[in-house]
Amino acid sequence: MSENESDTSGFPLIGDQFPELEVATTHGPKTIPDDYEGQWFVLFSHPGDFTPVCTTEFVGFEQRREEFEALNAELIGLSIDRVHSHIKWTEWIDEELDEDIGFPIIADESGDVADALGMVHPGQGTSTVRAVFIVDPEGVTRQVLYYPKEIGRNVDEVLRSLEALQTSDEENVALPSNWPENDNFGDKALLSPPGTVQDAEARTAEADQEGYESYDWWFTLKEI
C-alpha cells in the first residue's frame, strides 16, 4: 500500500456504510451513525476552533438549522480541538455574533475521527480539510463535498443537495443541474434512460400517454 493509499484508507465513498464512531461532543457522547438511525445527518469538519472562515460557517449552518431539521436531518460539526475549546468558541459566537449554536460539535483532539474519515490532508499537518458528509437514515454515505481551507462552504448547496437526494429517492428520478431552479427545465425531474430497445420504445409510448416533456427516449422530463 502506498503512502497516499494509507492516508485515505478510511475515506467513506458514496454508497459506503458510514463508519461507526464513538465520539465526545458538546452534547455528550454519541455513537455515529447509530444514534441517528432513521434520520439523515450532515457532518462537516473544520481545521480548528477560533478560525474566521469556520466561524462564519458555524453561524451559517445554525441560521439554517431548522430547515435541515424540517428535512429530517441533523447537523454535526467536527474540529480537532477539545470540548472545552468548542464550548468557549460557541460562547464567543453567541456573545459577539448573536447566534446560539444548537448542534453538537465533535471533539477530536487526537485526530482519530478525522483520520478514520480520511479528512487529514497529507502535507497539511493535523488540520482537517473542510469536508461535508451527507448520510441517509440507513447510515449510507450519499454525498461527499470537499472545500479548501481558504473558502467557506455554500450552505444553500448543502441544503439543496439534501433535498435533491430525498426527492430522487422518493420519486425514483434524477434531477437536472441547479434543481429546482434549472434555467431551462425549472423544477422538473429526469426519468432514468431505458436500458434496452424494448424499454426505449416503451418510454416513447409512456411519454405520449403521460404527457411528459420528451426530447428523445433517453431525455424525458416529468413534473413532480
TrEMBL record:
The keyword Cell membrane does not apply. It is found in: Cytoplasm. Pfam families: 1-cysPrx_C (PF10417), AhpC-TSA (PF00578). Substrate binds at residue 130. It catalyses: a hydroperoxide + [thioredoxin]-dithiol = an alcohol + [thioredoxin]-disulfide + H2O. GO terms for cellular component: cytosol. Homodecamer. Pentamer of dimers that assemble into a ring structure. This is Peroxiredoxin. It comes from Natronorubrum sulfidifaciens JCM 14089.
